[in-house]
Amino acid sequence: MGLRTAVVACAGVVVLCTAACDPLTGTGPGTPPDPNKYIHSDPATHAVVITLIAGYPAGDYQFNYNGYRNGTLVISIPVGWQATIQCENHGTVPNSCAVVAGRSDLAPMEAGWSTPDPVRGLDPGRSATFAFTPSRPGSFRIASLVGGNEASGMWADLEVTPAGVPAMRAEG
Questions:
Q1: Domain with 139 in it: what CATH number?
Q2: CA 84 to chain CA centroid, nearest Å
Q3: Most buried residue among 105, 122, 132, 165 by CB atoms closer than 10 A?
């Protein structure tokens, strides 16, 4: 094999690796999973458990929950239901989960409605759980409050409904 052939072969390997692997997350492109895999509710007790995976590897962009970003993951919770959020950080940078009223909020809506120290976030590979019970309907967000994460798309749409059952779906 000549030098030219070796250089072309190496360049080909680099192109293939670049196309198949995101350098930030080490993941390739993929289809985000069905959101229903990450929600479990008990109508008898009005309780719901939702798992949010920060930096889910299905996409090639780590600022997401369960592979969805920019509010394309929509979570609906009825007023009065207790919601437990299990936040897992699969990303390569700190991430958090916090219930916020609007864009660019720097603190959770209520004390305890977030992972511990949401501005610092959970280190990669760590997880935390918190619970909240919404008392009024409205449109809110679950976002990472680590600097720049929400602006990079790390937020889910949270719809608190007057009645019904909890749901999680993807839009867009």
A1: 2.60.40.420
A2: 15
A3: 122
DSSP states of 58-80 as a string?
Answer: TSS-SS-BTTB-TT-EEEEEETT
Contact 139, 157 (CB under 8 A): yes
Count structural domains, the chain: 1
Residue 6 lies in a domain: no
Amino acid code (one letter) for 91 = G
Q: Over its length of 172 residues, how does the chain's per-residue pLDDT go in tens digits? A: 554 444 334 333 333 333 333 333 334 456 788 999 999 999 999 999 999 999 997 456 889 999 999 999 999 999 999 999 999 999 999 999 999 998 889 999 999 999 999 999 999 999 999 999 999 999 999 999 999 999 999 999 999 999 999 999 999 7
CB burial string 8-22: b at 16+ within 10 A, e below: eeeeeeeeeeeeeeb
State the pTM of this model.
0.82
> Has residue 12 been placed in a domain?
no
